[in-house]
Specification:
With 251 residues, the protein is α/β, with parallel strands linked by helices. It is built from 9 helices and 8 strands. It has one domain: Metal-dependent hydrolases (TIM Barrel), CATH 3.20.20.140. It has an 8-stranded parallel sheet with strand order 1-2-3-4-5-6-7-8.
Length: 251
């Protein structure tokens, strides 16, 4: 099964042609799309998306880039959402130490509280990890969260192994299609295939052939084919195993 484990189909970039984007994904062979929220004010859009499009499933969470505006009311809203909506994960959550001006302590508090909710509701987490891999691992080890996905993984092999020990899969998408992404391509080629899931992060993280244009879930088969080439495997085997990996996370 071809599963896009990270696709923001609810994003404003798709407002004029969302139906067509979804139809194109299905026509390309994408059978499931995980749509993660990034802020409380986007929960309704995610909910509407999964109600309108049967192949979509929802994750609800508050992205670290929204940490400065998020407070206890937002966490309470997330709790209510997880109680009432059919969520497959808590996400997109994590830490981002790349973008300046976002207090690391506020990020950490928001992250920890959302990990507690994932533990309480027995849900996996979808992680945003940028320039903060070791810090994210530290909080995960304390959390008791059962599994999840490290979205857009860009750490070291040692860090990858630590995520895997904690029950996590590693998300690979458009970045592996660039010849200059040597570390990501090496990881994608060398990690056990049982640890990898596919994603687009559409409309962001476009693959090389889109020349920085808008990304879409219909690009996933070509990303899978690129991963297959890196590994010397038939694309069908990559699609089969990464689908099983994703299904194991989201049950």
């Amino acid at each position: 099964m071809l599963i896009d484990t990270h696709c923001h189909l609810d994003a404003a970039e798709f407002v004029v042609d969302r139906d067509a984007v979804y139809a194109a994904a299905l026509a390309a062979g994408v059978e499931r799309l995980v749509v993660p929220a990034v802020a409380v004010d986007g929960f309704e859009a995610v909910k509407n998306c999964v109600q309108r499009y049967p192949a979509c499933v929802a994750a609800y969470g508050i992205h670290p880039l929204h940490a400065m505006a998020a407070g206890d009311d937002d966490l309470a809203c997330l709790r209510r959402c997880l109680q009432t909506e059919d969520a497959v994960a808590v996400g997109e959550i994590g830490l981002d130490y790349y973008v300046p001006g976002i207090d690391p302590e506020r990020q950490a508090r928001l992250f920890v509280e959302q990990l507690k909710l994932a533990r309480e509701f027995d849900l996996p987490v979808i992680l945003h990890v940028r320039r903060a891999v070791d810090q994210v691992l530290k909080y995960l080890r304390r959390s008791g969260v059962r599994c999840g996905i490290a979205h857009a993984f860009n750490g070291s092999r040692q860090q990858a192994d630590e995520f895997v020990k904690l029950g996590f899969k590693l998300g690979f998408g458009g970045a592996l299609t660039y010849a200059g992404s040597t570390r990501i391509r090496a990881l994608a080629a060398e990690l056990p295939l049982t640890t990898i899931v596919l994603e687009t992060d559409a409309p962001d993280m476009p693959p090389a052939w889109l020349a920085r244009g808008r990304n879409a879930p219909a690009e996933l088969p070509r990303i899978a084919a690129e991963l297959a080439t890196l590994r010397g495997l038939p694309p069908a085997e990559v699609i089969r195993q990464t689908g099983l990996n994703a299904a194991a996370v989201f049950r």
